[in-house]
Amino acid sequence: MKIKLTSVYVDDQEKALRFYTEVLGFTKKADFSQGPFRWLTVASPEEPDGTELQLFLNDNPAARAYQQAMFQQSQPAAMFYTDDLQSDYERIRARGAEFTAPPAKFPWGLMARLNDTCGNLIQITQLARW
């Protein structure tokens, strides 16, 4: 069994697509519509056939309330892993990302958190190499 797809709610799919591709560096994987529904996913260029992240339009009041509560409590909607957090932090910050927590050291590794501009906090983690 594999995890092939996970989703984050976004308040604007076009804005989210720009952020996740132009700022974070993911690639657009799928983009098609059926009526008002748009299926939009991105994937890591390091694993183009790996797990996809669906940028799901948040037009559900219950989901919107959940998303807002998680953001207000500083809880990340997704966590991405990297082998070089400092380099990714500098690259992403240079592209205009707003970090709510710069890289910090923890017993298990390094962590930073940023605002995806679409209603979510995203955590980037580098695990310690024991």
Characterise this structure:
The protein has 130 residues and is an alpha/beta fold. It has a single domain, classed as 2,3-Dihydroxybiphenyl 1,2-Dioxygenase, domain 1, CATH 3.10.180.10. It contains 3 helices and 8 strands. The chain has helices at 13-23, 61-72, 85-94; strands spanning 5-10, 27-34, 37-43, 52-57, 78-81, 98-106, 109-115, 121-127. The mean pLDDT is 96.
Q: So what's the overall shape?
A: globular
CATH H-level homologous superfamily name: 2,3-Dihydroxybiphenyl 1,2-Dioxygenase, domain 1
Q: What's the CATH topology name?
A: 2,3-Dihydroxybiphenyl 1,2-Dioxygenase, domain 1
DSSP summary, beta strand count: 8
- The main sheet orders its strands as 1-4-3-2
Brief summary:
This protein is α/β, with parallel strands linked by helices and 130 residues long. The protein has helices spanning 13-23, 61-72, 85-94, and strands at residues 5-10, 27-34, 37-43, 52-57, 78-81, 98-106, 109-115, 121-127.
